[in-house]
Amino acid sequence: MVQVSVSASVAIADGPVLPVGTELDPESYTFTSVALAEAAAAGHQQEVSLLPTAGAAVLLAVRARTQSGKRATVTFTPATDAPTPLPIDGELLVWGAGAVAAVLPGGLGSLTVSNGGSEPVRVDILACLGGS
Predict the structure, then answer these.
(1) Does domain 28-129 have CATH number 2.30.110.10?
(2) Which of 27, 29, 67, 85 makes an SS bond possible with 128, Cβ 3.0 to 4.6 Å?
(3) Which residues, 6+ apart, have CB-to-CB distance to 99 below 8 Å?
(4) What's the mean per-residue pLDDT of the chain?
């Protein structure tokens, strides 16, 4: 097992700050980076295998940036019989097996990552399987 520490906070100007976080002990994790061309070019999408089909994903963290460092919008589409595409605008952080399954019901076994923007992007993906 590995230990994963998650922390973030939401701050409203002149308002409350809500810190959130958790410690996870997943069975395993996968980290991958995907480089995608702009939408009109070949290479604007790529199939990615993250986790085995057995077991529940307990964490999904995504960061998508253009070459100039701006947030990029990408789409995750699971390789299932009835895929539900998930648009991601720059970042996504979800933990807990139920929450990850609700956000990406097709699972994290195999999915297609697509860039619909006019600039090439890099997508960093961290996924964790099972554990507590």
Answers:
(1) no
(2) 29
(3) none
(4) 91
